[in-house]
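Our consortium's second objective concerns turning raw sequence data into structural hypotheses that experimental partners can test. To show how far this objective has progressed, the report includes one record in full. It was chosen at random from the queue rather than selected for favorable results. The single chain below, 428 residues long, was entered without modification.
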Amino acid sequence: MPDTGLIVVDPGHFHVALVQQEMYPNVSPRAHVYAPLGPDLVDYLTRIARFNGRAEQPTCWEIEVHASPDFLERMSRERPGTIAIFSGRNRGKIDRVTAVLASGLHVLADKPLIIRREDLPAVEAALTAADQRQLILGDMMGGRHEITATLTRVLRGDPEVFGDPVAGSAAKPGAVMSGVHHIFKEVAGVPNLRPAWYFDIGEQGEGLADVGTHMVDRVHRTLFPDEAIDYRNDIHIHSASRWPTMLSLAQFRRVTGEAQWPDYLASRLNGDTLEYYCNMRVHYQIRGVHVTLETRWDWEAPVGCGDISNTIFRGSRAVLEVRQGQAENWRPELYVRPLGDIAAALERRISALRTAHPGIGLEKGNKEWRVVIPDKLRLGHDAHFIQLTRQFLEYVERPRSLPQWEHANLLAKYYVCTEAVALSRQAS
């Protein structure tokens, strides 16, 4: 009989449903949902019904809804499961997570845990409490399972291929990452409506505080794999800036289904256009390595294109670069640009990787190699949530298997993101 039960808390973002795209061994099919009545709850239930009713590999979730204004207090008292899942409103999320940990439940929370730098001590306290009670507090870093991210991390860790990280400078950083997300898009084949509160940066967070968490996580894990980052001593933030994406009322209606602007967005309106502060750039150093990150939100992706991410990691022997432009048909491709004679070492490394990643290879270009990645290894955004959930469940089963660096690096990640937001507001 399964002994692990899921409790979904106030589902306000579609990521929580992606956790339930499949059934998991030793997880009960009965999931409990605690939330207020409203469109967020309806949207979640609709997505789960879609998974249960699909033609291929349907799920069999049995959802028991506990709808009430005091849903959090009621859930903490009744505790009908062992894992609480948070995905939705970000303001005050860390307080709800802390309360759930105190009731003895593991927590899987969608990013971000916090959107203000004032809340970083609360994250540290929550991690300490989880550790003391042998509970797992994890955030949903699905990007860790993207194949080009995995291969970049492996190649960076090979001194014969990558060498040592290059510190670089503000003008030419040792690590660069940029990302373009899209406000209106389809998820699992249907238009992804967003709740109106999503556009309240005081509720959802802005720029780097939200999707930027994935960028910081990837940069730190690649530059210093399996090493604990001390945010107090290892990181220095130099500058940050922000700018808005302008959203018309017609666009707002299309993406939310709302007829008019809600009152809480009134202060952000310029005429009848919303100044949606969701774009940000930051320059900082981590252990001396200069890093530049830029996250941007456009309205809608070009045909055939989804969210876009580009990265550069400069080493003393090679530069690793992931490009995702039109030349790559809008899918990420990993390139290795040599700065020395690395051909034999690169061939050996790719050959050794074929056991874990069957079918990968090398394609020699004029001044660089492209790592050939078969389609079967490109699982996509939604499938990454299955992978992260499986990993989380393994940690729940064996709490001491959680890597010791995870807590320190989670704090470092949220330090960069929330400090950058604060600094950018001072500069604007």
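The partners drew two points from this record. The chain has a mean pLDDT of 94. The first strand starts at residue 6 and ends at 9. Both points have been shared with the crystallography group to help prioritize constructs.
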